[in-house]
């Protein structure tokens, strides 16, 4: 059991920071903990090691967090497509807007009539 | 988690250092472990082949985390009392769990980024809709302008056609003024200033005036005619006029009545000319009638019966008195009068010879 806790702690500490520009370690851990389940699993294992009655509580927390994550994922906008597809759609929309702007500008400033030169 | 998994999960947790734990592990772990390992290996291969939506990836990763965490906790619970048959298996599960957790975090960051991109896309879509409505508005305006211009061009072309047509059939303004003068000189347009109700003068030649003209006096014409003009009938017959028969030829009467009508038509044509702009038709009609009028004016210097009437009283210069006028329906009586007048005129003409 101790090996697992050590391993899990090491895994938590050695997790690559999501943003390499962040200098301090604490924000990295905090940011990782937002969507990470390892801290809760670590707490569960610790409780199991100690035979603490809080094991059930921790298990419920894990279960709740997983359920909340599922609900949050279902409500996220724009995740119905892959990133590449979304980027291509974004590019297409930008081109559409640009083209329509150019067309409008062209037709608004277009002189439809050729003024004949006096002979 | 479904109900069965929940029960098994709690069973694994509640199992204390007892032999029952092995039983629980037999029931659940083996099945879950084998299935999970197979699925994880398969997904790794397939994920590279097809670009799955981020949502599916997130849910899949979350399921894996759930399964792996469950398996890990189960193994830990069983390892408290007995040795693990495969000691390396727990390490593998731990590594897989850590890997999946990392992937889940990355996918969540990607999902948040996609959310921001989605907002930008929605803003762009609104702008595209706005531009579309602007283009439609511009299209409507251009269509309206095209319609107006087409109408204007068509009307201008019609005007040009009518101008060209008028140029082809142009009439000198001097001629029109001359004819208008002749028409107005005969009091056909406006009554004389001293005209009063009861005045026998009319804007058209009356019967008396017609009869006093060359057609009415065809039987009284001298041998050489008046002013060198011979009656058309005698000339057509090849005979010199000489003395005319007492009776005027019926054709002359008919022609004289027709001339009277023609003068009436002349007045009507003038009215039509000024009221309705039927220039060409009216002018031709006017021209024909004025020609006849002028012919009568030239050839009718004096009314023959006026010389007899002068002794009775002062008479108007051109028209006879009231008793000389006949209603248009009494043609027989007119014929008798004409016969009498013809007799008188023939006697006067013979006297003049």
From TrEMBL, chain A:
**What keyword terms does UniProt attach to this protein?**
Activator, Coiled coil, Nucleus, Transcription, Transcription regulation
Q: Which residues lie in coiled coils? A: 52-110
GO biological process terms on file: regulation of transcription by RNA polymerase II
- Origin species, per record, is Cyprinus carpio
Report the Pfam families cross-referenced here: Med9 (PF07544)
What's a Gene Ontology MF term here? transcription coregulator activity
| Subunit organization | Component of the Mediator complex.
The family note in this entry says: Belongs to the Mediator complex subunit 9 family.
Q: Which PANTHER family match?
A: MEDIATOR OF RNA POLYMERASE II TRANSCRIPTION SUBUNIT 9 (PTHR20844:SF0), MEDIATOR OF RNA POLYMERASE II TRANSCRIPTION, SUBUNIT 9 (PTHR20844)
The record's section on InterPro entries has: Med7/Med21-like (IPR037212), Med9 (IPR011425), MED9_metazoa (IPR039242)
Question: Which function does this protein serve?
Answer: Component of the Mediator complex, a coactivator involved in the regulated transcription of nearly all RNA polymerase II-dependent genes. Mediator functions as a bridge to convey information from gene-specific regulatory proteins to the basal RNA polymerase II transcription machinery. Mediator is recruited to promoters by direct interactions with regulatory proteins and serves as a scaffold for the assembly of a functional preinitiation complex with RNA polymerase II and the general transcription factors.
Q: Name one GO cellular component term.
A: mediator complex
Localization per record: Nucleus
In terms of SUPFAM superfamilies, this protein maps to:
Mediator hinge subcomplex-like
Q: Does the keyword Transcription regulation apply?
A: yes
Q: What is this protein called?
A: Mediator of RNA polymerase II transcription subunit 9
Record carries keyword Coiled coil:
yes
Tree of life domain: Eukaryota
Automatic annotation (TrEMBL), chain B:
The coiled-coil regions, if any, are 107-155
A GO term, aspect molecular function: transcription coregulator activity
Q: Which parts of the sequence are annotated with region: Disordered?
A: 322-353
Q: Which Gene Ontology terms describe the biological processes this protein takes part in? A: regulation of transcription by RNA polymerase II
The biased composition feature labelled Low complexity covers 342-353
Location, primary (coarse class) = nucleus
Spell out the subcellular localization from the entry: Nucleus
Q: Which UniProt keywords apply?
A: Activator, Coiled coil, Nucleus, Transcription, Transcription regulation
**Which Gene Ontology cellular component annotation is one that this UniProt entry carries?**
core mediator complex
Lineage top rank: taxon: Eukaryota
Q: Does the keyword Nucleotide-binding apply?
A: no
The record ties this protein, via InterPro entries, to:
Mediator_Med4 (IPR019258)
Pfam families in the cross-refs: Med4
**According to its UniProt record, which protein family does this protein belong to?**
Belongs to the Mediator complex subunit 4 family.
Function comment: Component of the Mediator complex, a coactivator involved in the regulated transcription of nearly all RNA polymerase II-dependent genes. Mediator functions as a bridge to convey information from gene-specific regulatory proteins to the basal RNA polymerase II transcription machinery. Mediator is recruited to promoters by direct interactions with regulatory proteins and serves as a scaffold for the assembly of a functional preinitiation complex with RNA polymerase II and the general transcription factors.
The UniProt subunit note reads as follows: Component of the Mediator complex.
What protein name does the entry list? Answer: Mediator of RNA polymerase II transcription subunit 4
């Amino acid at each position: 059991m101790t090996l697992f806790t050590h391993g899990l702690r090491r895994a938590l500490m050695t997790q690559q920071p999501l943003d390499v520009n962040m200098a301090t370690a604490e924000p990295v851990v905090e940011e990782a903990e937002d969507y990470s389940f390892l801290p809760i699993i670590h707490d569960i294992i610790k409780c199991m090691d100690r035979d603490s009655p809080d094991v059930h509580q921790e298990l419920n927390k894990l279960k709740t967090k997983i359920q909340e994550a599922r609900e949050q994922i279902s409500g996220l906008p724009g995740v119905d497509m892959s990133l590449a597809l979304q980027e291509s759609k974004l590019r297409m929309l930008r081109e559409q807007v640009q083209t329509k702007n150019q067309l409008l500008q062209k037709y608004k400033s277009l002189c439809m009539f050729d003024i004949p030169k006096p002979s | 988690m479904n109900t069965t998994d929940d029960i098994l999960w709690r069973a694994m947790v509640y199992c204390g250092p007892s032999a029952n734990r092995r039983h629980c592990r037999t029931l659940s772990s083996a099945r879950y472990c084998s299935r999970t390992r197979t699925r994880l290996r398969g997904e790794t291969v397939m994920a590279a082949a097809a670009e799955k939506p981020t949502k599916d990836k997130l849910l899949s990763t979350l399921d894996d985390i759930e399964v792996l965490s469950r398996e890990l906790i189960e193994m830990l619970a069983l390892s408290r009392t007995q040795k693990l048959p495969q000691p390396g298996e727990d390490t593998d599960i731990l590594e897989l769990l850590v890997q999946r957790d990392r992937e889940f975090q990355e996918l969540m960051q990607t999902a948040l980024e996609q959310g921001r991109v989605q907002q930008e896309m929605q803003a762009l879509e609104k702008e595209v809709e706005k531009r579309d409505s602007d283009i439609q508005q511009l299209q409507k305006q251009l269509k309206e302008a095209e319609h107006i211009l087409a109408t204007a061009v068509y009307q201008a072309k019609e005007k040009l056609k009518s101008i060209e047509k008028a140029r082809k059939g142009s009439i000198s303004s001097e001629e029109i003024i001359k004819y208008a003068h002749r028409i107005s000189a005969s009091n056909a347009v406006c009554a004389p200033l001293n005209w009063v109700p009861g005045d026998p003068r009319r804007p058209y030649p009356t019967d008396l005036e017609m009869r006093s003209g060359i057609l009415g006096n065809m039987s009284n014409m001298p041998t050489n005619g008046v002013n060198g003009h011979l009656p058309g009938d005698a000339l057509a017959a090849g005979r010199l006029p000489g003395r005319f028969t007492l009776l005027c030829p019926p054709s002359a009467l008919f022609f004289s009545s027709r001339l009277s009508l023609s003068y009436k038509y002349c007045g009507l044509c003038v009215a039509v000319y000024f009221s309705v702009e039927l220039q060409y038709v009216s002018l031709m009609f006017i021209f024909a009638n004025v020609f006849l009028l002028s012919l009568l004016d030239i050839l009718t210097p004096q009314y023959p019966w006026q010389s007899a009437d002068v002794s009775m009283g002062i008479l108007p210069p051109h028209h006879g008195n009231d008793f000389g006028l006949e209603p248009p329906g009494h043609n027989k009586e007119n014929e008798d009068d004409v016969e009498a007048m013809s007799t008188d005129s023939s006697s006067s003409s013979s006297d003049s010879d």
